[in-house]
UniProtKB/TrEMBL annotation:
Required for maturation of ribosomal RNAs and formation of the large ribosomal subunit. The keyword Repeat applies. Keywords: Nucleus, Repeat, Ribosome biogenesis, rRNA processing, WD repeat. Residues 46-113 form the NLE domain. This is Ribosome biogenesis protein WDR12 homolog. GO terms for cellular component: nucleolus; nucleoplasm; preribosome, large subunit precursor. WD repeats lie at residues 180-217, 237-278, 305-345, 389-431.
């Protein structure tokens, strides 16, 4: 079907301007797809004013204009781009999203106003923001087996865990510089520990595995060596009676917690005094490709939290005093680190595979259905989710809040998709379809990229995501 175009200027019937010089205003073009196909009156106009927190050259004139009520975000984006082009001839058009009263517009203006009960008689203030969607898909980093864990918390590199029992460091998201060998089972979880207090630019890492152990690693990612370099763990953490499913670092990086198929949550010390005592043997292992298992220190858990009745599938440690855990027993618990008690226990009707705490201290979790749910644990007397996102087609495997946004998070699923979400709309902002099989893990990287691993043995990187 051919696309029909409607061109209008100030003074014509399509668009009207108020307090503007008509001769300096640009030509606006809209496609037929922007029209209301449900028979609404296409001649109806709404007075709007575009506002933004973006800096010039992305700040449009603040004068109010009249726009057709059938326009959706695509048509509104064309208007804003034309206004910006009129201010700067060198401006390159880009897509925008639009907020009315703090909610993203995902239908025509007329439908939105009717749905929200907003009067069309007043000047409607519309805030425009950059579209949250990846602009570039980098070449995937290939592994030898399923990529089951990923951590993108360090902007210099990405840490992955794999079903071949190995963890890897990918410098700049492309070059495998370090291979972490030692586990005898699939690596299920990885964590980059806080580097505060660690000397000589070394970083510390933690990994969990189906071999029932956690391992601690130390390496210098800035050093010049022949790549890829094999590294051995300097500590083995024993204590779980079944596979370790999830690990998480304390905010200060001096402790980690772990969740296991033995139904427990355990706490472990990884403070600097213990690291210093083993520093000599660490340096020796850096020069030897075949690490000696006997030289590794073994430590026991400092405490164990018991309450779950099935696999503890996910743990996170967002605050010094509080740990959260999700389980296959259909529950999410909070734990007081000092007492080991669980003051908050939320029971759902589904198995949980993942959880994360972020945004406005909200809990995001997914499991054995396609729905990503959000809870507010601060609301007493109710265990109902405050948000539900249901665009996935299969089980949800991982979810992660953006570190600098209270609205944005990402999820992955067995349906092979990665989805970007904003609490201000029920629809996904973007669907990333870069995997050819189940997606098993996902994280943010450098604030503007999403990294994910899957059953296709690939680490995929989607970049150029603008989060305001």
């Amino acid at each position: 079907m051919e696309m029909s175009l409607i061109a209008t200027k100030a003074g014509d019937t399509g668009l009207g301007f108020r307090d503007c010089d008509a001769k300096n205003l640009p030509l606006f073009i809209f496609s037929s797809s922007e029209m209301d196909t449900n028979g609404s009156d296409s001649s109806r106009q709404i007075q709007v004013r575009f506002v933004t927190k973006l800096e010039p050259p992305l700040k449009a004139p603040a004068s109010s204009i009249a726009v057709p009520s059938y326009l959706n975000r695509m048509g509104l984006s064309e208007i804003v781009n034309s206004l910006l082009k009129s201010v700067s001839s060198e401006f390159e058009p880009q897509p925008f999203d639009f907020l009315v009263d703090g909610e993203l517009v995902r239908m025509s203006l007329e439908q939105f106003l009717l749905a929200k009960g907003i009067s069309a008689e007043r000047v409607l203030e519309i805030e425009y923001i950059k579209v949250v969607a990846p602009r570039e898909q980098k070449d995937p980093c290939l592994h030898d087996d399923w990529v089951s864990a990923v951590d993108g918390s360090d902007p210099r590199f990405i840490l992955t865990g794999c079903y071949d029992n190995i963890s890897r460091i990918w410098k700049a998201g492309s070059l495998c510089t370090h291979i972490l060998e030692g586990h005898t089972g699939a690596v299920t979880s990885v964590s980059i520990l806080n580097t505060t207090g660690v000397e000589n630019g070394n970083i510390r890492l933690a990994t969990g595995s189906k071999d029932r152990t956690l391992r601690l690693w130390m390496l210098d990612v800035a050093g010049k060596v022949d790549y890829p370099m094999k590294i051995g763990a300097y500590k083995v953490l024993n204590g779980h009676m079944a596979s370790v499913q999830s690990i998480s670092s304390a905010p200060l990086g001096d402790k980690i917690c772990s969740g296991s198929w033995d139904c427990s949550v355990k706490l472990w010390k990884v403070n600097d005094s213990e690291v210093e005592g083993d520093s000599v043997s660490i340096k020796k292992r850096k020069l030897v490709s075949d690490m000696v298992e006997e030289s590794q220190a073994e430590i026991e858990a400092m405490s164990s939290f018991v309450g779950h009745t099935q696999c503890v599938s996910s743990v996170t440690w967002p605050e010094l005093e509080t740990i959260y855990s999700a389980s296959w027993d259909h529950s999410i618990r909070s734990w007081d680190v000092e007492t080991g008690k669980s003051p908050w226990n939320m029971v759902s009707g589904k198995v949980f595979n993942c959880l994360d705490v972020g945004g406005r201290e909200l809990i995001a979790a997914g499991g054995s259905d396609p729905i990503l749910r959000i809870w507010d644990p601060r609301k007493p007397g109710t265990l109902a989710p405050i948000f539900q996102f249901s665009s996935h087609a299969s089980w949800i495997t991982a979810c992660k809040w953006h570190s600098s946004s209270q609205f944005h998070l990402v999820s992955s699923s067995y349906d092979g998709k990665v989805m970007l979400w904003d609490l201000r709309t029920a629809w996904p902002l973007a669907v990333i379809d870069s995997h050819k099989d189940k997606v098993l893990c996902v994280d943010w990287w450098k604030g503007d990229s999403v990294v994910s691993g899957g059953a296709d043995s690939k680490l995929c990187i989607s970049s150029g995501i603008s989060i305001q």
